[in-house]
Amino acid sequence: MSRRKASDYDESDARVRPSRKGTRPRTKDRPAHExxxxxxxxxxxRGRYTVLAGTGDYERTVLAxxxxxxxxxxxxxxxxxxxxxxxxxxxxSLARIVRVEHRRTVLRRTxxxxxxxxxxxxxxxxxxxxxxxxxxxxxxxxxxxxxxxxAYDAGLAPLLLxxxxxxxxxxxxxxxxxxxxxxxxxxxxxxxGTIVGLDDVLERLRGKRSVLIGHSGVGKSTLVNALVPGTFxxxxxxNVVTGRGRHTSTSAxxxxxxxxxxxxxxxxxxxxxxxxxxxxARIINAFPDLEPGTExxxxxxxHDEPECALDAWVENGNAGPAGRSRLDSLRRVLRARTxxxxxxxxxxxxxxx
Length: 353
What we know:
Order of helices and strands: EEEEEEEEHEHEEEHEHEEHH
Strand order of the largest sheet: 10-9-8-13-15-14
Structural class: alpha/beta
Shape: extended
Distance between the termini: 85 Å
């Protein structure tokens, strides 16, 4: 049998092995998902997201996962997202989050002031409620100051919520924050479990998305259970030896107030609030009455150094009668960010982690 020459072959003799990956051409174009449904993320748990979709009588709770096209983009409580797939909310159904809408505000923190990795606590909140006990455990002003810095940086309105007023006079603590003009509410719990001051708290939360931050043991979960009956958030106790609370909440969750009056976002108790992500130059923006006095500051002034022009500006009465106390408060906040509070400062830092 004679062998065929190369010139005897044509394209009909070639066999093409079929591709195992299919024949659909690859494209970088992503679907627009124009029919996606709006939803609010109210809970996050190990890669599954609880979202509230729909409005009115068709509002429902849906379990969702993150679509592959979002890549490593994080999704947090408070995010407003676009939802596709099975959005019925029926048992065993699973929808897909295909888009995270623009975040109006973002509250961030780091593990400490040297950690370059920032963690988003919550998105799209309006108000940061710093919950602190007046006793058992003792208040930690520097921790409160750090939360205020984070609130100012994120564009959130701050609110101090002081608990356990039956154990200590709130006057001295409230007085130390008077120059900052931070609003506050005071509560305490009666023997029968009634929380005195709860109506004042509700009034401050009305119509807002409020995120609650505080040390373990300050009574945050107790407040949430009273604000949103039927929530059953775990309540811890304070160790009588260490004075620290035990972590009870393990993840953030958004809860709607009765009569749709607003939202509270309960977060796990924290023992530190790092601010490595915050630019010191932006903190002065939270003190608009002092900001004009920085025009004569030397280049790169931190506003907490001998050459700062704010001292002379305040002494000349340009900031009004409260100018000196306001400047002291600014520097207190700056030192909370930098960790440079004087060694003999009576302010306590946050708990060791």
